[in-house]
């Protein structure tokens, strides 16, 4: 069974909220719109890679929206 996109989205949103981003629009780009630093993105990448055994490039974080990133990981 594959990974559900909603599950991945939930994990990303949970992480962002734990870093003080309380209003998460899944149409926002992960890097640009939430103003996260690269260290925070590395942490998020490690969490997602550990949970879903997928490698995620920094480029994906810097260009994709939350929704697109979840889609990419779940596919």
TrEMBL record:
Gene3D superfamilies: ACP-like (1.10.1200.10). Coiled coil: none annotated. Residues 28-71 form the Carrier domain. Pfam families: PP-binding. SUPFAM superfamilies: ACP-like. It comes from the Eukaryota. This is Carrier domain-containing protein. It comes from Dictyostelium purpureum (Slime mold).
